[in-house]
Amino acid sequence: MSTGERVPGDEVDRIVAAWGAQRPDLDFSPLEVLSRVDRLSRHLDRARRDVFRRSDLEPWEWDVLSALRRAGAPFQLSPKQLLQQTLVSSGTMTNRIDRLVGRRFVRREADPTDGRSVLVTLTDDGKVRVDAAITRLVDAEATLLSALPRGDRERLAALLRKLSLSFDA
Fold first, then answer.
1. Ranges of each domain in the chain
2. Intervals of the chain under pLDDT 70
3. What is the full DSSP assignment across 59-121?
4. Which of 41, 60, 74, 136 has its CB 3.0 to 4.6 Å from that of 51, i.e. a possible disulfide?
5. What is the dihedral of CA 45, 48, 50, 51, to 10 degrees?
């Protein structure tokens, strides 16, 4: 966007302007950023819920199946590795694996390196389901970002990464 190009105001601009008139002693720049992030997050949540509904997946199912798919062939992880990637309790993960086994999206297999342990493996049905969902998800998220050219998206991603890393430090 060139300097001097007029950008239409949004609801956040109206809120910040109203607060600025009432409390000119405060810096409202955090609201200008984080209120927009919050509003965008709601759009993203709606788009993701729609994608998962159209893919006949619950969000928690997506979390487990996508972790397995991202692991690469043979698309298997231990329950402990799944716990680390999905940040749920051991009992919750056991229940989730049971339910995914019931839907034939995953199967439990003996760990060949440790007979006392099991590996959770993505089935062909699970792989087809997660692949369809990620295709829909990428398309939906691209639509959400379609107002920004690639260079703007890359700059925004870099800025959000920098902010995110500051919380992880």
1. 29-55+130-168, 59-123
2. 1-6
3. HHHHHHHHHHHHT-TT-EE-HHHHHHHHT--HHHHHHHHHHHHHTTSEEEEEETTEEEEEEEE
4. 136
5. 180
How far is Cα 120 from Cα 102, in angstroms, rounded to an integer? Answer: 13
Nearest Cα residue to 127 out of 55, 78, 31, 19: 55
Cα 11 to chain center, whole Å?
A: 25
Distance CA 123, CA 46 (A): 28
**Looking at the domain 59-123, which fold is it?**
Arc Repressor Mutant, subunit A (1.10.10)
* Pairing of the two strands 106-111 and 114-122: antiparallel
pTM higher than the cut 0.85: no
Give residue 4's pLDDT: 55
Cα 143 to Cα 85, 100, 113, 166, distances in angstroms: 27, 30, 44, 28
Rounded CA separation 46/90 (Å): 29
For residue 33, give both structure tokens. Answer: 């950023």
Question: What pLDDT does 1 receive?
Answer: 47
